[in-house]
Amino acid sequence: MSAFAIEEPAFDVVKRYPQFELRKYKAYLVAEVVVPGPADKAGNTAFEYLGGYIFGKNKGSRKIAMTAPVSQTPAPIKIEMTAPVAQTATEGGYLVQFAMPREFTMDTLPEPTNPKVKLREMPAQTYAVLQYSGGWSQSLYEEKLGVLRRVASEANLKLEGEPIFSRYNAPFSLPFLRRNEIWIKVISE
């Protein structure tokens, strides 16, 4: 939990390495939206939709407690073609997610009134996670992502999928006090 006691998805630390952790996350629910880039603007754009959802823009006008992290990852969007099963992936911007409080199930979460906001259960999954403080610049993110990929490879972990950039603090937090993480799915140890 963070210093402000904001709820986070539950996980167990499988192993601690000098620069990162291997974590097994339990399944959790998210509200998510796909927004256009660039990466450094996606979170603010998404907040209009996701913040609206948790502040009451949902069926029943229910307010939902803020949780952490706010996660962001590049999102390809599949476009159905005219042939029955053919699909083409294209860069679709960024998938931004708010974790939902554990008190909810898919049946008890209020339905979003904005069709862009989707609800989904994230499956239990193991991630290599590198934590760092500092600003949210693309250059710092890419530097830390490079470190995580290198040290995970040195630990003989096989990674898969797009990295997930997770932010735990409000934008007005001082950068040196911010908790940022990069998660990458681990498919074999």
UniProtKB/TrEMBL annotation:
Against Pfam families, the record matches this protein to:
SOUL
| Coiled coil region boundaries | none
Return the Gene3D superfamilies for the record.
Answer: Regulatory factor, effector binding domain (3.20.80.10)
Give the highest taxon in the source lineage.
Answer: Bacteria
Question: What InterPro entries does the record tag this protein with?
Answer: Reg_factor_effector_dom_sf (IPR011256), SOUL_heme-bd (IPR006917)
- SUPFAM superfamilies under this entry? Probable bacterial effector-binding domain
Instruction: Report the protein name in the record.
Output: Heme-binding protein
Q: What is the protein's species of origin?
A: Undibacterium nitidum
